[in-house]
Design goal:
The complex is a heterodimer of chains A (about 140) and B (about 210).
Chain A (H helix, E strand, L loop, with lengths): L1 H29 L1 H9 L5 H21 L10 H22 L2 H9 L5 H21 L5
Chain B lengths: L1 H7 L1 E6 L2 E4 L4 E3 H4 E4 L2 H8 L2 E4 L7 E5 H11 L4 E5 L3 E6 L8 H25 L2 H13 L7 H19 L4 H4 L5 H20 L12
Parallel strand pairs in B: 1-7, 2-8
Antiparallel strand pairs in B: 1-4, 3-5, 6-8
Classes of the chains: A mainly alpha (about 140), B alpha/beta (about 210).
Chain lengths: ~140, ~210
């Protein structure tokens, strides 16, 4: 019995460790946190940002595993949705940057000047796709 | 006496990183390098022909500093050439500038627009975004919701904001003067291409084992 419990503990710890390491590695590759510190000129506070990510992950784990109920106003969802969206947007932008989409596109079709318009196409496409999905697509 | 003499006949050249020429044009030394030389020799040096662009050159020519020094020494006797900085210049032959047609541009714009719209929908479906959002709604409000729009609309707008924030377009002037990651990325890509060209278009940069 004790062996079984210890084994489950070990397996749980091991899987958590690899998932957590993977999450951090992913964030690092996409460079979201460096980008935010660069924009806000707060390089010195980077350790606190790391802790913010760790705490966020732990809250997420708690919320998804324990199904807590908070009984508070629904309007709290607006800042939650907005910040969550900004984060996912930065992930998506980091991903397009990592895979070199824009430099190659600009070279191929020779539009060095209007590349911002192409970025806007992708940004607006993301917003459109997302709103379309939630308002219409998922209910069909 | 001797030292002064040497000083007077020293020519410093620094190859430019990149130069643009038209087809059939002559590439002069002043096009590919910055020059410091005694006043007397300067104008001759500046107009020293380095290369005649021909059709066989295609659109990239790499001018190596060795080739330049050889030409200078042939032309001017008793000079010492000092080279500073990059060892070669990439000369780009600019043919007729082709304008991107508006229709083509709009086509690409919509390609990107619908492509990214579809990608984000696939992503949301893949990570079960919908059920997570409904669960968050239930956690916060203790109610069931099939359309947690209060969460979803800000989320969608935030998605776009996050991308803009990352590429630093809106806040470019206000937040800081640093280049955006996109500009750095394009610069790095160009640098990689240049490095490739420098090695591969320059016959002198590689020596085969057999001289055949």
């Amino acid at each position: 019995m004790t062996i079984k419990i210890l084994l489950v503990l070990f397996i749980g710890l091991a899987s958590g460790l690899s998932v957590g390491a993977g999450f951090v590695a992913f964030l690092t590759v996409l460079g979201v946190i460096p980008r935010l510190t660069q924009l806000s000129k707060t390089m010195g506070l980077i350790q606190y940002y790391e802790w913010a990510v760790v705490c966020g992950v732990l809250v997420g784990v708690w919320a998804s595993l324990r199904d807590p109920l908070l009984h508070i106003s629904a309007y709290i969802l607006i800042p939650l949705g907005l910040t969550g969206g900004v984060f996912v947007g930065m992930l998506a932008a980091g991903l397009t940057e990592v895979v070199n989409v824009f430099p190659i596109l600009a070279k191929r079709i020779r539009v060095d000047g209007q590349i911002i318009i192409l970025v806007m196409a992708i940004v607006l496409g993301k917003i459109f796709g997302s709103i379309f999905q939630w308002l219409y697509f998922v209910h069909q | 006496m001797w030292e002064v003499n040497v000083l007077e006949k020293t020519i410093y050249i620094r190859m430019r990183h990149r130069a643009h020429v038209r087809p059939e044009e002559k590439i002069l030394l002043k096009d590919v390098a910055q020059i410091i030389a005694p006043e007397a020799a300067l104008s001759n040096l500046r107009s020293l022909m380095i290369h005649q662009v021909t059709e066989g050159d295609q659109n990239i020519i790499v001018i190596d500093v060795m080739e330049v020094i050889k030409k200078i020494i042939n032309e001017f006797e008793d000079v010492e050439v000092q080279s500073i900085g990059p060892a070669q210049t990439i000369v780009e032959v600019i043919f007729e500038k082709k304008k991107v047609s508006i229709a083509f541009f709009i086509l690409i714009w919509f390609l990107l627009f619908f492509g990214s719209a579809m990608t984000i929908m696939n992503f949301h479906d893949d990570v079960s975004m919908r059920s997570v959002q409904e669960k968050i709604y239930t956690i916060v409000t203790d109610k069931k919701a099939t359309k947690p729009l209060l969460f979803q609309i800000p989320y969608s707008i935030g998605l776009g904001l996050g991308m803009i924030l990352f590429f630093n377009h809106v806040f470019k002037k206000r937040l800081n003067e640093e280049p955006s990651p996109l500009e750095v990325e394009i610069f790095n890509y160009q640098l990689d291409l240049d490095n490739y060209v420098v090695i591969h278009e320059n016959k002198e940069s590689m020596k085969p084992v057999n001289d055949d």
